[in-house]
Amino acid sequence: MPDIVEFAPAKINLALHVIGQRADGYHLIDSIVAFAQAGDRLIVSAASTDTFSIEGPFAGALAAESDNLVLRARDAMRATVSTTDPVSILLEKNLPVAAGIGGGSADAAACLRALRRLWSLPLSDRELSAIAIGLGADVPMCLRSRPLVAMGIGDIIEPVSAMPAMPAVLVNPNLALSTPEVFRHLAHKNNTGIPRPAADTADGWITALQTLRNDLQAPAEALQPAISDCCSILSDSGALLARMSGSGATCFGLYADGQKAAEAAESIRMAHPAWYVCATATLPG
Asked: Which residues pair with 168 in a beta bridge?
């Protein structure tokens, strides 16, 4: 069978409100999520023995990790369908690690999708999501990789069909942040939920998103002040909306058109050559 190639797009939390906390410690969220045209890539194929390799600009950040989410996804799928078929997996790591854009979760989701195809499994999306939630709160939404609203701990998902593609720039000042640490610094954990935007154009979505927020941004900025600098730089470059994604430290800017996004990315890259800077666009609903 030919190689199975699965794209693992970056997750962008366009807005994220923390609206409570369960007794087991998990936080409850209400988040509008988009996915980018930028991301990692998995190449999966049948093999005589299991292999796993990582290449790409951020491969080094995972080199010493013995419990990669991709391998956990492989093993969870095997346990579910009772197979021991060996596979070769190559992860092309293009996204920064621990960056608030779902890199590891997107990779795990891509692995689940790839193995379903490789093994010709009759698993529904619902059944695949049941495996995904055992791997992490962000994995079910990354299975979709299209605009959505995520609620609960991230496991309750509503598709958003009326969101167009929006030009964007992703910026990370080469900082990794611990999600539990950011949550520990969150002062208020019972915030208001997100009203559902009645928008179907890029302008309408940006206007609606400007009234919302990411509740994790303030605690993340307290831990890493450079996040605030990133958002200011994006705004100064012409972004109509600049905000942190997830628990950081990646920030995003949304632009009026692709040319402005490309020009902004080039300007930021020249001023900060050590940063991760990527001109992209969100995937439409």
From this structure: 254, 280
**Which is more confident, 177 or 37?**
37
Structural contact between residues 109 and 145, judged by C-beta atoms closer than 8 angstroms:
yes
Distance between the two ends of the chain, CA-based, in angstroms? Answer: 31
Tell me the C-alpha distance between 188 and 167, whole Å: 32
d(CA 270, CA 171): 13
Check the CA dihedral 33-35-39-45 and report its sign: positive
Rounded CA-CA distance 6/117 in Å is: 10
The CA-atom distances, in angstroms, between 225 and each of 19, 102, 175 are 24, 21, 11
Q: How many CB atoms lie within 10 A of CB 8?
A: 30
The answer to whether 177 touches 98, Cβ cutoff 8 Å, is yes
DSSP H helices, the chain, are: 69-81, 103-118, 125-133, 139-144, 179-184, 202-209, 217-223, 226-236, 258-271
The answer to whether residues 192 and 19 touch, using CB atoms and an 8 Å cutoff, is yes
Q: Which of 185, 74, 84 is nearest to 135 (CA)?
A: 74
Distance CA 143, CA 126 (A): 10
Query: CB count, 10 Å around CB of 41?
Result: 18
User: Where in the sequence numbering do the catalytic residues fall?
Assistant: 11, 138
Write out pLDDT tens, residues 142-175. Answer: 999 999 999 999 989 999 999 999 999 999 999 8
Alpha-carbon distance of 223 to 220, in angstroms, equals 5
